[in-house]
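Follow-up to my post from last week.
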Amino acid sequence: MQIHRVVRELVTTKRNFWLAAKSLRVVEDHKGNLEVALDPIGAKPGDFVVTIGVSAARIAAGNPKITTDLTIGGIIDHWDEARWRS
Amino acid sequence: MKICQVEGTLVATARIGSLENRRLLVVKERGSSGKQVAVDPVGCKPGDWVIAVGSSAARDAAGSKDYPSDLTIVGIIDYWDESGERAGVKADANPPRRA
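User reply:
Got it. Predicted complex:
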């Protein structure tokens, strides 16, 4: 699992059937690389989150048929940018 | 499996239900700069060197096939000397011969 920061929401109306109506977020890692993660929790921009990758991401989405390779697993209570970048 | 050093506990109260109340640790993989988060079913302390499994083996290692983990700690390394690691490998490869 990795530590990401939520950048913003992402809206895709026309989408793969197995993405269902799950909400998506743009997240960045400590180097500033952007990725898109499925969000079952409801994280807000600026929140530091734990993201789950590979096949575990599909289980974390609540249904193994959901086509995702990155899912937000939790919102981190205390985290700061200096610790993240170091 | 990856060799990682434990940095500390990670508190995430708002989490998906399937993660349950398992302990999450921030770990640093040996030889890489970025931090990762691992599920800890073993019970590690900060500073411990551990081995961690990834991909679908991480799900089994966390206790069940339906547990959403992509990195799970499977063991604490008894002895790992980071500074003298290279020298240690050499010494093991060519053990001193005794008559």
